[in-house]
Write a structure and sequence with these properties.
The protein is α+β, with helices and mostly antiparallel strands. The chain has a domain at 19-32 and 47-81 and 476-717: Rossmann fold. Helices cover 20% and strands 32% of the residues. The protein has 14 helices and 39 strands. An eight-stranded mixed sheet has the order 32-33-35-34-36-37-38-39, sandwiched between helices. Strands 5, 6, 7, 8 and 9 form a five-stranded antiparallel sheet that branches. The longest helix is centred in the last third of the chain and has 20 residues, at 698-717. It is globular, with a radius of gyration of 25 Å.
Length: 725
């Protein structure tokens, strides 16, 4: 979509008197780092499973459901969303393991899900002969546990033994149990790691690398493991041998084994912060050897003994300079050489409009997902005597591409393409025949009529003059009269780009329940994300956080300025860090929006490090215990900046009682505070489910989505009376 790039003039909207007063008050409060935060009367809502807090949430749910679920459109909408989410026309997302394609599948019969597999040769068939490996619904019923799937780690190259991660209700904490694929059962007396926030991987058939809660003193202040041990089959976990111990102030310590034909390498990672780490190679002797990468390098994989890493900062080594955002490789057998820097090779260097997204390892090829002006590409990288060479995989333009499946023991890969209006197509690429064009093996049928729709990419000028891209999905005959119901979405944090891995481009639910009713959708690629590499992320870190919010507001202003919509018809939506984003947006500019869906959000940024896994995100937001950071955080923290006497939109807070990452304390306290100020809100806290999905089954997801769309209809599509406060 680079040809649609528009350089737009700045838009400056005057702040209303209340907002100007609010800004002045914040600046005054932060002056000279004299931070004054009044006592918090809602601390009692913070404990995750406090009976008092849960009773409050249940009462709030009742009030919300009475209105939104009581809407006459709700039942039919919920059924329609359920039909879409459980449709069998969806492409089964593949995981390649040898000659098998594995898939985790949920539908109307299997709401918890089926883990299944089929031969790769049969996967392309219209009705593949799937073999059920594990029925999670049956397991949940048998064991009387609300099991939530968190993935499988199988031992190459046979992949016959797997470590299954299962969560009770969807929390990040999970149990890890050894599973025999051939018998379709858990291994009696096999490896079994108790419930915790763990990192577990194979070392070999009889040994695991385990980072988990080993007891007092074994966790970081963020609540993640700080010890890595080797656990031998047939011995109790308490006798596992310690090989690395980090500091309590670290975020997390972990370990992973990389396999390739004829070799393997185990790497222990010390995560000092969310973005900085040190890597150590586990030698056959059991000794750890430091891998001389810079602290900001992120290991992406190991390819035939070459460790491949993404540089988050520039690196000078071996008399050469490698730019920030570059991908480099280093042979593991050279890490202790005095001249190791001379052996570092450049794999990929993005230009200013491009960014690396992800890496997938095949037998002789690295498949790389990249972005160019936020449009997807896949590169096939090969290592030769003169270094790395790249070939662009020929796929459709102006959409999003990603490697859906690869395996380090073969050269075939499965690549997905989709756009906002084009349903996904899955292509098979054969690395053994690089001249052969990708072969389409599965196409998802269109689940909504997109013939009358169009997608444009536009740019808005932020407060500091930076141009911010955004996608606009709209009817081809859209009138720019300010009357179009418009939903604006963004994330803007942790270097994550808005790609289908985080935000599905082709969404049948949006198509049927929003586009079909005349709705417009906008997605903003604001700073803080990774759409243009590490510098795009770094621009909104810590004291610069306001830039992400300015970017989002600039896009909202542009949508209004160009007549796409108006404040009465503009809604915003974000989850997690995106929930913080929309929280800041509606407290700083309540005049711009009429609907706000704030999902699993951070909101009390003056206390976030004390709630859930908040301490692990200090590298992103900064520590409010530092006076300089506290001053910057206080300027935008939604919980501290919501004030009486300001007319806010009626916000819909959505959270989960079992979210042990961004705990529901943020949403609970914000909702309680706003109601006490006389600002009515909607609040829904799912009684089960974690941070990623919010519900433990498709039925729960369907319910939550139906509530959200009813809210959007009432606020943005209905008349002024129905959409009022």
């Amino acid at each position: 979509m680079k040809n649609l790039r528009l350089v737009l003039a700045a838009v400056i909207l005057a702040l209303p008197a209340a907002a100007r007063a609010q800004t002045a008050a914040k600046a005054s409060a932060a002056a000279a780092h004299k931070i004054s935060v009044p006592p918090d009367p809602y601390l009692w809502l913070e404990p995750l499973h406090s009976p008092h807090a849960l009773a409050w949430a249940k009462a709030q749910n009742g009030k919300t459901l009475a209105v939104l679920a009581g809407d006459p459109r709700y039942d039919a909408l919920r059924k329609d969303i359920g039909r879409i989410l459980k449709s069998k026309s969806r492409i089964p997302q593949p995981t390649l393991r040898g000659d098998w394609v594995y898939n985790f599948w949920q539908d109307g019969t299997h709401v918890h899900g089926l883990w299944r597999r089929v031969r790769l040769a049969d996967y392309a068939k219209p009705n593949p002969p799937w073999q059920t490996v594990l029925d999670l619904d049956a397991l949940a019923k048998k064991e009387k546990q609300n099991w939530f799937w968190q993935g499988a780690d199988c031992l190459p190259p046979k992949n016959d033994r797997c470590l299954l991660s299962l969560s009770r209700g969807g929390t990040d904490a999970s149990v890890v149990r050894e599973f025999d694929v051939a018998t379709g059962s858990f291994v009696k007396g096999g490896f079994d790691v108790p419930e915790a926030k763990s990192d577990v991987d194979w070392l070999d058939q009889n040994h695991l690398l385990v980072a988990t809660n080993f007891g007092p003193g074994s966790l970081t202040t963020s609540g993640y493991p700080r010890e890595v041990k080797i656990w031998t089959r047939g011995t109790p976990l308490s006798q596992a041998r310690l090989i690395f111990s980090g500091k309590p102030s670290d975020v997390e310590e972990s370990a992973q084994t990389f396999f390739w034909p004829g070799g393997r390498a185990s790497i222990v990672t010390r995560g000092m912060t969310f973005f900085t780490s040190r890597e150590y190679l586990l030698k056959p002797s059991g000794r750890l050897e430091r891998i001389p990468l810079p602290p900001g390098a992120e290991v992406q994989g190991v390819f035939h003994g070459q460790i491949v890493a993404l540089l988050q900062s520039a690196w000078k080594t071996g008399g050469r300079f490698f730019a920030r955002g570059a991908l480099v490789s280093l042979s593991l057998d050279k890490i202790s050489a005095p001249d190791f820097g001379k052996h570092v090779r450049l794999v990929y260097l993005p230009d200013r409009a491009s960014a690396f997204v992800d890496l997938s390892v095949a037998k002789d090829v690295l498949y790389m997902d990249v972005l160019h002006d936020v449009s997807g590409r896949v590169l096939a990288m090969r290592l030769g005597p003169r270094g790395w060479t790249a070939r662009v995989i020929p796929l459709p333009d102006e959409g999003s591409t990603s490697v859906a499946g690869s395996d380090p023991f073969q050269n075939r890969a499965l690549i997905s393409y989709e756009s906002f209006l084009v349903p996904p197509t899955l292509y098979e690429v054969d690395g053994d025949a690089p001249g052969r064009k990708p072969r389409a093996i599965k196409r998802q049928s269109a689940i909504f009529d997109a013939s009358g729709m169009a997608v444009d990419q536009h740019w808005a000028k932020s407060a500091d003059g930076t141009m911010i891209p955004y996608f606009l999905v709209h009817p081809k005959n859209m009138k720019r009269d300010g009357k179009n119901p418009t939903l604006l979405y963004a994330y803007g944090g942790f270097g994550l780009p808005m790609v289908p891995a985080y935000m599905p481009y082709y969404s049948p639910v949006i198509g049927n329940e929003w586009f079909a009713k005349g709705g417009v959708f906008a997605m903003a690629n604001i700073r803080g994300g990774g759409e243009f590499g590490p510098s795009w992320h770094e621009a909104a870190l810590k004291t610069h956080r306001q830039k992400a919010y300015d970017d989002f507001i600039a896009v909202a202003e542009r949508l209004i300025k160009t007549g796409v919509t108006s404040p009465r018809r503009l809604g915003i939506m974000g989850r997690s860090n995106g929930g913080l984003l929309v929280g800041v947006a509606f407290t700083e500019r309540p005049d711009l929006f009429h609907a706000v869906i704030c999902e699993v959000p951070l909101l009390d940024m003056m206390r976030y490090i004390h709630i859930g896994a908040g301490a692990s995100w200090e590298a992103e937001y900064g520590n409010p215990a530092n006076p300089r950071m506290a001053a910057a955080i206080l300027r935008y923290s939604p919980y501290q900046n919501v004030r009486p006497g300001v007319h806010y939109p009626k916000v819909f807070f959505v959270t989960s009682s079992d979210d042990d990452r961004v705990e529901p304390a943020h949403a609970r306290k914000m909702a309680a505070k706003m109601e006490a100020m006389g600002d009515p809100v909607y609040f829904y806290e799912s009684p089960e489910g974690g941070h990623e999905r919010g519900e433990a089954s498709l039925n729960g997801t369907t319910k939550t989505m139906a509530l959200e769309y009813i809210y959007l209809y009432r606020r943005l599509m209905d008349g002024a009376a129905a959409g009022g406060r």
